[in-house]
Amino acid sequence: MKGHPILGVTTGFLFGLFLGITLFLFGVIPLSSDWLWILPLLGILLGLIMAAWAPFGKGAESSPVPAPPANAPPATIPPATDAPVPPADSAAADGDNTTTD
Amino acid sequence: MTTRFRRNTALSLTLLMLGMMLALLLAAPANAEKVKGDCTGFAEFPAKSTDSRLVAERSRSDVFLVPREETVGYFGTLKEGASDFDNPVEFKGGVSVMTPFNSWQVVGWGGESEKVSAEGTYTYSVPSWVPAGAGELEVTAWHQQGEYDCEVVVTVQLDGDPGPAALVAAAGTVVMGAGVLAAGSKKGAKG
Prior knowledge:
The complex is a heterodimer. By secondary structure, chain A is mainly α.
């Protein structure tokens, strides 16, 4: 699925349910109509179709980051900040996890 | 907004509207009235100025508007011209509203009687949470006594306006419809 199936099923069911209730309340369909339970099922189907089809947006995989050319200049070093630099020995102790018994 | 996005949105909405139109076309009202037995009768709604009598032979396609509360005068007989039973005979019956899954009994009666007809008054009041002016209700009245088995179906509609409940339901439909469209966005899409 390229889209959002769980969102599609949930909102599709509620969409069909609300649509059936709305049609009944506005006097379009009678209370005994089978459409009151068919519409929520059609809504679930519609949500699944929308999630499978996913016609909106470009998606993460369809817009890959282009690789830099081979002769591109190296990335610029960010300017130094005023942040304190930890002492060299404590930094080595923190990062040293290759000691053996 | 890209052309592809606009095209897909228009296609989705078109399919949605076509589906709704198909649903409305297939939801045509049925037409029948008395479905079982030779019984007959009527209910009189004195608060109504016009069309105040609901008869058993009324066509199902002819919707009867029902007030929210009323004291109804009724008369019913198992068969016109029939004489009473010699001895009391057990009877049972009721009035129920059809829903998509089952029927909901709103009134019931039972007992023993040698009479083949009955008349009287019945006072009802529809709860305030029931929306008025909504869709049609298929109401079935049935009565069994001895060899008589009778069933009458009429279509009624609660008199009044749907009120805020219909607007809330319409708003919910729009919000959930937007949710369905959102489910059609690609995972990780920026928009």
